[in-house]
Amino acid sequence: MKREGLILILSAPSGAGKTSLCRELFKKFPDMKESVSYTTRAPRDGEIEGEAYHFVSNEAFERMVEEDAFAEWAEVHGNMYGTALRTLEEARKNGIDLVLDIDCQGARRLKEQFDGGVYVFIMPPSMEELRRRLEGRSTDARDVIERRIIRAADEIKEARWYDYIIINDNFDVACQELAAIVIAHRRKTFRMMEKVGKLFDI
Ligand code: 5GP
Questions:
Q1: C-beta separation of 191 from 3 below 8 A
Q2: Are strands 79-84 and 70-76 parallel, antiparallel or unpaired?
Q3: Which residue has a Cα nearest atom 24 of ligand 1?
Q4: How many helices (H) and strands (E) would you count in the chain?
Q5: In this predicted model, what pLDDT tens digit does every residue of 22-44 receive, in sequence order?
Q6: What architecture (CATH level 2) is domain 7-35+95-200?
Q7: 3-state DSSP assignment of residue 22
Q8: Disulfide check for 92: which of 5, 11, 50, 53 has CB 3.0–4.6 Å away?
Q9: Measured distance CA(38)–CA(21) in Å, rounded
């Protein structure tokens, strides 16, 4: 019996610290893999096809939607993003623990259609702190920051249906909490039985 891969879904408003938390997560668990989504947005400097994303045309994306190739998809900031069903099925079947960094709409669609994922919402400690972080970190124009804050307020309302919520006030604590969630799900009996079966005659 092959161990079933863990599908970990992370969502967060822009500025909540998801990217840094993910980086730490992969340091702590180097065997976890990042799900590579499909997107219609243009590659940014340094982004490599098949690593950051699969970069596809609007037509190719539409075709995948029509063929039901996506486990979920959504429009984010005017571009299309989607997770291929095959990516999830293969990881799960091959015992690979996969991390999906997807927006709330996509996560909700996935939860409705795909069984067994673990949904984690990462929050800033307050709207004031979120504003401080967004203003501090970026050279973005005022109106871009304002739009992100309005969007963040909407996204935070979605947190209620996630399985776990992490408030990223203290970064180290937030990292520990995310690691604790991963460890707990890796220790689920059904994920341990393959190993136990090899160790003991049960
Ligand atoms: P970026 O273009 O900055 O890489 O990503 C923008 C947003 O798209 C992020 O909030 C990210 O969570 C979301 N995103 C990335 N891939 C997917 C995906 O496959 N599905 C959905 N629903 N959102 C995604």
A1: yes
A2: antiparallel
A3: 102
A4: 8, 9
A5: 999 999 999 999 999 999 999 99
A6: 3-Layer(aba) Sandwich (3.40)
A7: helix
A8: 5
A9: 22
Distance 192 CA to ligand 1 centre (A): 32
Q: Kindly give the distance from the C-alpha atom of residue 81 to the centroid of ligand 1, in angstroms, as a whole number.
A: 6
Show me where the domains of the chain are located. 7-35+95-200
Does ligand 1 lie within 6 Å of residue 74's CB atom? yes
Ligand 1 binding pocket includes 164 (Cβ within 6 Å): no
Whether ligand 1 lies within 6 angstroms of the CB of 151 is answered as no
Ligand 1 center–CA 31 separation, angstroms:
22
Q: Is the pTM of this model over 0.90?
A: yes
Name the 3-class secondary structure at 169. Answer: coil
Contact, 11 vs 168, CB < 8 A?
no
- How sure is the predictor about 186, in pLDDT bands with cuts at 50, 70 and 90? very high
Residue pair 19/102 in contact (Cβ under 8 Å)? The answer is no
- Is 123 in contact with 22 (CB distance < 8 Å)? no
